[in-house]
Design a protein that fits this description.
- By secondary structure, the protein is α/β, with parallel strands linked by helices.
- The chain has one domain: Rossmann fold, CATH 3.40.50.
- The chain is 53% helix and 12% strand.
- The chain has a four-stranded parallel sheet, sandwiched between helices.
- The protein is globular, with a radius of gyration of 16 Å.
- It comes from Methanolobus tindarius DSM 2278.
């Protein structure tokens, strides 16, 4: 099974779809859970330590706001860990708002720059597009199983 980075990284819908097809969704919710339940972070809503914006320098320059570096300290390693990606464009806030336009652009850029299977879709606007949206995601996730089995036989 593949580790699939989803964008928006906090989309419960995408995370659930990836999981239903037997893959591991790389999503912000799990990473934040680790942060707020780990000793070293005093209490929610604080979800990063003082060191994490420094780790974010690997993904964003020092001139970039600390919030972007802090987010990238969490999102960047997920992108590096990913074996595949799903990017949904033009999604409404309720689908999974990342909260920062610069982080969004950097996240999408880094996902696209990886040599891995990537599915890019626009958020559906009606029921027919919604069915097609889920179908395309399902087909993509099924194709990842085929890629994995081919790699295992080589």
């Amino acid at each position: 099974m593949a580790k699939v980075i989803i964008y928006p990284t906090n989309s419960l819908i995408l995370s659930d779809l990836v999981q239903r097809f037997g893959h591991t969704p790389l999503a912000m919710m799990e990473k934040i859970k680790e942060k707020v339940t780990t000793v070293g972070v005093d209490s929610p809503p604080m979800n990063i330590t003082a060191e994490e914006p420094k780790h974010g320098l690997k993904y964003a320059a020092v001139e970039v706001p600390a919030g972007v570096r802090g987010r990238m300290a969490i999102v960047g390693p997920m992108i590096e860990e990913a074996e595949a990606g799903i990017i949904v464009g033009e999604s409404p806030m309720a689908f999974g708002c990342m909260g920062c336009a610069r982080t969004n652009e950097l996240t999408k850029y880094l996902i696209r720059s990886r040599e891995m299977p990537i599915l890019e879709l626009e958020f559906p606007k009606d029921d027919d597009e919604g069915q097609e949206f889920v179908y395309k995601i399902a087909e993509f996730l099924k194709s990842l199983d085929e890629v994995k089995s081919e790699e295992a036989t080589e």
